[in-house]
């Protein structure tokens, strides 16, 4: 396929890249994913509110317990004390029950939201064009699917409910503070604006640094994914040190960003802790003086202190929730950056039907550019249904790009490409691609079984149809020789199979799909002679009755093609049969003679 030169993705955010907007409305978009779980979420919120409300009763009863114990010294009537303790135990039991219900229900919502969001993001990625994937590292995309989505999980479940619960606790505790002691309440509430201001100020910086952490982790993941997927190349060039250093730079960048965030979080935590406990110390001093003068009972002071602690704890919890929302804004920006990405291959509003293509392909003055670089220029030819067309030419002539336009992996930038007389842009991409089969040079198999890979293009195929396709592809014998047969797991990218075996499984996959248009992109160039003979025999069966485009590394394999197109510099410079082109001379004759001489020299060396 046409690919753009790979770019080095920085481990930290590229300063020249557009900034992702941290719009608070992104949180509303996130919460939209919670709509299917709104019933469970509502019950969880109610349980949270009830638990929080019950916790407000505890200080009042505890104060009464203190007074029942200390103000009735010498009395033998333990009734008030017994009733207060029983009430406390009942409150604790109910609060624990509702807290457990809240924990489970909101965890259920969070897990569901994350699963739905990952499915939506992955499904959307599959709709984007190859151009998008040429511009983005796989590791960065998988990081957004995993780490970033995980970051927003808390916000879409527990954080929102906790926000409501802590708000109820704060309002209730403040009201009860004022009811218990108006003077002490003014003293306590004076600290709250200072706490909130500190949280907001430092929280904004935490949000920015959180985005830096996410970008750095994504960059490191991208480096690791490249090295792992290309580990054979890495090891063959003994480049382990280079990859360690590259990944190490990414990890170091994420480590430094994480430390920066940790310092900010520690600063905020320490500051809030000092403000909270410092104010409590002052409160104890002032309240103790009031107890000594008879303005408060010991129980009222204890009740007030517990409510004050609740207010301080609630404010601290709210600042923590605020930080979670800040981190979620950074992560959601990266998520919605992908969800808002649109394919550069527009789908027609009313696609033309293509139930079963005949297979006629027409290039009418087609040109294609990648950015500012021209790749194809004014390409014109018509291929009747069922014809076998070979494409030859030097490296970089545009052969692979040309065939990539047929299944509409890219759109032409000028001219028109037609299948069965209609511009390919008039068809739905899925229907068009269902009519096109591709057997590339480097076959990609998925990490399931042999049968699952063959069935990939037609999941509803029967076991008999799978076996028939494998037999036609000369693959049944080696598959049957495996102990697990068709259930044999091929490993990631089919690594457990040889090159020839992978290629024959790919041919069986294409046979089962039964496409009308077939693209063979140097399908035998990397095989030994024995494997090539088996694959070539399978390819001949695959090509029967189909419009076929063959890009061949060895010109000797395309001599029997109905037609040969010679490409050079993004243009078709010659068109004819092998005999016609050999007689006419020119580039094809030069390429053929050069390759023939090389093959002769190779045979002589072997002899």
From TrEMBL:
InterPro entries assigned to the protein according to its UniProt record, in alphabetical order: AAA+_ATPase, ABC1_TM_dom, ABC1_TM_sf, ABC_transporter-like_ATP-bd, ABC_transporter-like_CS, P-loop_NTPase, Type_1_exporter
Predominant localisation class: membrane
Protein location: Cell membrane
Membrane-crossing segments per the record: 39-65, 85-107, 159-178, 184-202, 266-286, 301-322
Keyword presence, Repeat: no
UniProt membrane topology term: Multi-pass membrane protein
Domain ABC transmembrane type-1: 42-327
Protein name: ABC transporter ATP-binding protein
Species, as recorded: Deinococcus aetherius
